[in-house]
């Protein structure tokens, strides 16, 4: 029996997490081959999703899900359209190859099973994010990507640099997650739905709302922190502390692309306005140039690729900001192109590092004879990064230039930025693909030798796919670009993608200018690097240092606030607590004119007067108690008077409960206090009497006035009737108060019991410590005397 669509989508979302649970056990039996075995899961997901391409082309989108919290209308729902399908296919395909690679790259590592589990959980979080239809589910998966990336970046937790990088990534992206949560709640309030599929139709309503600017800024902040836009880009290069398989996956198809996906997904809702275009185009353009220049300054191959990822993310954000059909087409095809060549190049760098012991570009050379297959994969991926014909990178570059060929001054400025950024990226691509393999052979820490099939499968397949996708341009346009653009724009988009080189086309000459700039950058790479490094030294400040300063300031501020509010003086805590209680009750009542009229005092019977006299007697006894023990017992008199009131007004079960609580409270309190001097009286200064008496009277009057407001309103008996009708039938208890405490408020009561128990344990520990200190004091004095 074939699974239903709901079951299929649920399996796509759940399967990586199930595999993550099993990964350590599989590694225990399969060893380094566990990568191949676990890769079956993302490969199967890819195959299932591939079978949905044609149905999505025909219907536009597929939605499915189950009710999550029905009372609030929350469903764990999934949406598969052209946009989510393109991302999901890329994540699963690259994920399968990287799992195979990771099994060989970490061969012999004692925690390889844990690493593979983290990778699968990371993959599952990203797949859930791009397929989630429900906003709450999207936020949950968004945060899961932050948590799992924290585990992966800090995998080598014994190194301080890895720990710092993991914490930095978690702080920056976690801050974006909080703004996304707030933005999602506001968007739900404005749009009236939790499902993205419904909100996509409410773009005009959201843009007309006064909350539009707040929603836009919250979502943009979340996307910018996740996708490393300036000034939040600094965490991404530091994430290179993670093992190379993590870098390849994180930089190509997963976490850093989450912000790009969010902007594409919300484009129909939030896009098309001047502030949307201004924010995304300006920050995207700055990030593109910043990342490209920073890449040229590096000598570490992984750092060079990491900085180019920042640049590419800026380029994608810029294209989304432009928002035209051609620009969205270009963003869709560039996402695929970048994922293929960036993952391949990262894996190539991992092979170089693994087989030579270094990834410093200045310490490498002449490796093409020693690593011929790696060299071939590097060249093919580098060609796509440069954007030469026959590669998918060429198609993406042509499409983005076509989007800005209108001749408008703003478009011309943006086009210049694109050409400059692409040219610098091309120079870096040439350096990574050529420098380590050509020139005189350089001795490396480990004698260079070709890697095995598990390490080579990923970079070779991905590099070949980058060429194959360029040759099969029409197929890529029909099955990936057009459905993605259709999902983003909300209108049908026809594929026009084809591989052609027209010497008379302006686009070709713009590409030639890009290639020329790339070649010049590569030729003068050493000079450019030296100039950029001198400039960096002259500035003497980085965003990374700014983060450290901000975190240091935050910690100092938190410590100051803690010292101010948590000073350890219990008396001050009580004064502040009751003062705030008085203000919380009195200010709203006075400001809103809610003070009640004083009710007429009814005539009382002799036994009612008796209860009042008992309560007053207990109060006076507490105030004038000659010792602590008398004060404790006097407190019980107040509780007994309240219990008698319950008994008098027809609530014997409540009165019985109150009697038990009061008796036990007095007994337990007296037992606990036995280790203190109960025959003493706490002497207090007159000023303390005046302050505390004033606060006590004000608090009592405030509570009285509040109760008068409550009882002066109409009495709603629905809840009382419900408890009366169901306490026996459902909870099988005749004592309604006990039923409420144990059944209807079971978790609340458990929490109260836990608090009391914790407080009791703390008091007991303090008393035992006091007795231990008292017992050791004579011995300590004797020892000091002997030493003297």
UniProtKB/TrEMBL annotation:
InterPro entries: CPA3_Na-H_Antiporter_A (IPR050616), MrpA_C/MbhD (IPR025383), MrpA_C/MbhE (IPR046806), ND/Mrp_TM (IPR001750), Nuo/plastoQ_OxRdtase_6_NuoJ (IPR042106), Proton_antipo_N (IPR001516)
Domain of life of the organism encoding this protein: Bacteria
Membrane topology: Multi-pass membrane protein
Domain NADH-Ubiquinone oxidoreductase (complex I) chain 5 N-terminal positions: 71-115
Cell compartments where the protein resides: Cell membrane; Membrane
Residue ranges annotated for the NADH:quinone oxidoreductase/Mrp antiporter transmembrane domain, each copy included: 132-417
GO terms of molecular function: antiporter activity
GO biological process: monoatomic ion transport
Positions of the MrpA C-terminal/MbhE domain: 690-777
Residues spanning the membrane: 9-27, 33-53, 86-106, 113-130, 136-155, 167-188, 208-225, 270-293, 305-324, 330-352, 373-392, 412-434, 455-473, 506-525, 572-594, 606-624, 629-649, 655-674, 695-715, 749-767
UniProt-recorded name of the protein: Monovalent cation/H+ antiporter subunit A
Origin species: Paradevosia shaoguanensis
């Amino acid at each position: 029996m074939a699974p239903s669509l709901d079951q299929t989508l649920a399996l796509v979302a759940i399967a990586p997490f199930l595999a993550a649970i099993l990964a350590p056990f599989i590694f225990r039996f399969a060893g380094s081959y566990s990568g191949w075995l676990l890769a079956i899961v993302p490969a199967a997901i890819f195959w299932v999703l591939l079978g949905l391409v044609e149905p999505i082309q025909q219907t536009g989108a597929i939605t499915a899900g189950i009710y999550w919290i029905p009372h609030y209308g929350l469903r764990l729902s999934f949406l598969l359209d052209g946009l989510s399908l393109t991302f999901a296919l890329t994540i699963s395909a690259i994920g399968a190859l990287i799992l195979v690679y990771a099994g060989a790259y970490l061969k012999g590592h004692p925690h390889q099973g844990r690493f593979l589990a983290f990778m699968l959980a990371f993959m599952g979080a990203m797949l859930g994010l791009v397929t989630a239809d429900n906003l709450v589910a999207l936020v949950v998966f968004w945060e899961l990507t932050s948590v799992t990336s924290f585990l992966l970046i800090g995998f080598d937790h014994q190194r301080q640099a890895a720990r710092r990088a993991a914490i930095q990534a978690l702080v920056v992206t976690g801050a974006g997650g909080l703004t996304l949560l707030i933005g999602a709640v506001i968007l739900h309030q404005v749009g009236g739905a939790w499902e993205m599929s419904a909100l996509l139709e409410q773009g005009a309503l959201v843009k007309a709302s006064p909350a539009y600017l707040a929603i836009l800024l919250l979502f943009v902040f979340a996307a910018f922190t996740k996708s490393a836009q300036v000034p939040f880009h600094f965490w991404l290069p530091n994430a290179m502390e993670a093992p190379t398989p993590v870098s390849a996956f994180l930089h190509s198809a997963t976490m850093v692309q989450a912000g790009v996906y969010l902007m594409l997904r919300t484009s129909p809702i939030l896009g098309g306005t001047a502030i949307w275009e201004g924010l995304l185009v300006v920050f995207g353009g700055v990030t593109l140039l910043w990342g490209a220049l920073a890449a040229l300054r590096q000598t570490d191959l992984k750092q060079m690729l990491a900085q180019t990822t920042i640049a590419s993310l800026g380029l994608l954000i810029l294209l989304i900001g432009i928002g035209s059909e051609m620009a969205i087409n270009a963003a869709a095809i560039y996402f695929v192109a970048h994922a293929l060549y960036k993952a391949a190049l990262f894996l190539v760098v991992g092979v170089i590092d693994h087989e030579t012991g270094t990834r410093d570009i200045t310490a490498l050379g002449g490796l093409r004879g020693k690593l011929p297959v790696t060299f071939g994969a590097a060249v093919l991926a580098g060609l796509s990064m440069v954007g030469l014909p026959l590669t998918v990178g060429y198609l993406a570059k042509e499409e983005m230039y076509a989007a800005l060929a209108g001749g408008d001054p703003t478009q011309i400025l943006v086009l210049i930025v694109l050409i400059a950024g692409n040219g610098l990226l091309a120079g870096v691509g040439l350096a990574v693909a050529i420098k380590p393999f050509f020139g005189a052979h350089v001795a490396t820490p480990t004698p260079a030798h070709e890697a095995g099939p598990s390490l080579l499968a990923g970079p070779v397949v991905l590099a070949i796919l980058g060429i194959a996708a360029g040759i099969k341009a029409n197929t890529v346009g029909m099955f990936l670009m057009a459905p993605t653009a259709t999902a983003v724009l909300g209108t049908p988009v026809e594929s026009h993608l084809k591989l052609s080189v027209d010497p008379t086309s302006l686009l070709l000459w713009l590409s030639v200018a890009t290639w020329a700039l790339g070649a010049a950058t590569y030729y003068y790479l050493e000079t450019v690097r030296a100039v950029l490094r001198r400039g960096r030294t002259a500035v003497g400040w980085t965003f990374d240092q700014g983060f450290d300063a901000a975190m240091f300031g935050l910690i100092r501020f938190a410590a100051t606030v803690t010292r101010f509010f948590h000073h350890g003086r219990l008396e001050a805590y009580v004064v502040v607590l009751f003062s705030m209680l008085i203000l919380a009750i009195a200010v709203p009542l006075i400001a809103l004119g809610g003070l009640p009229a004083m009710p007429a005092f009814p005539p009382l019977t002799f036994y009612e007067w008796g209860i009042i006299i008992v309560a007053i007697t207990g109060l006076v006894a507490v105030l004038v108690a000659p010792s602590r023990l008398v004060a404790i017992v006097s407190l019980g008199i107040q509780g007994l008077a309240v219990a008698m009131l319950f008994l008098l007004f027809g609530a014997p079960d409540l009165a019985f409960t109150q009697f038990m609580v009061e008796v036990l409270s007095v007994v337990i309190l007296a037992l606990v206090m036995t280790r203190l001097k109960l025959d003493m009286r706490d002497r207090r200064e007159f000023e303390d009497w005046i302050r505390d008496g004033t606060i006590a009277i004000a608090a009592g009057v405030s509570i009285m006035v509040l109760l008068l407001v409550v009882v002066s309103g109409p009495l709603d008996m629905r809840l009382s009737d419900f408890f009366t009708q169901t306490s026996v039938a459902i909870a099988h208890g005749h004592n309604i108060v006990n039923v409420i405490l144990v059944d209807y408020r079971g978790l609340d009561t458990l929490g109260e019991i836990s608090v009391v128990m914790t407080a009791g344990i703390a008091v007991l520990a303090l008393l035992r410590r006091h007795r231990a200190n008292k017992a050791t004091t004579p011995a300590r004095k004797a020892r000091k005397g002997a030493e003297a």
